[in-house]
Amino acid sequence: MTLLPDERIDQLQAAGVKIIQSKSVFAFSLDAVLLADFAEIKPRSRVVDLAAGNGAVGLFVAKRTSNQVTLIELQARLADMAQRSVALNGFTNVDVHQLDLKDAATVVAKDSVDVVTCNPPYFKVASGHVTNPNDHLALARHELTTNFQIVAETAAGLLKYQGKAFFVHRPERLEELLHTLMQAGLAPKRLRFIHPKADREANMVLIEAIRSGKPDGIRILPPLVVYDANGQYSQAVQAALYGK
Fold it and tell me: I need a surface site. Which of 1, 90, 188, 243 has the fewest CB within 10 A?
């Protein structure tokens, strides 16, 4: 496997997956691991991962289904990293497309997908706002080329009736996120807040939504705490990283 000078190979032990990373353009973080762990993947689930980055979420769930897993990523460099990680792991059920996520239906049929996952850009771009000078990181973190409305509408279009979408995002945008999902025909069903420590406010939220689901009945799961009192990963996070 050929690596560029700034690249390395990391492994997520829980998934048994190796992934090509680069600190100068993109490296997955804990949010991707927790999203993959949160997503409900059945043995025959057809999966699409939007805004796939270097492929982390899609690769982490690929062994849980015998069906096809499609990764959609806009940035050519990141899509190439994902494609090489597919080859590195010998996956035959994963395909990668360098594509704007709003055009995902050009490579995946509408109403054909069981599960959509997405770790989207978290931050809006306000007038005068300074983004990361690294274009790769700016695109991954800020809504420069897409926004959550486009993500939700794209996911809804790909999903079968009662198909499920799974997202990770920022709690401060929760009211907007839930409204946007409902407007797109995705009924929010499960939320789990992620806290750095037990006495700290949540800094991430995991969301499950169902296409054409009933508009009530949201379940709030127990919070997930990342670090225990000793500064070590909690048991839940250790399980997501290293296996149960």
Answer: 90
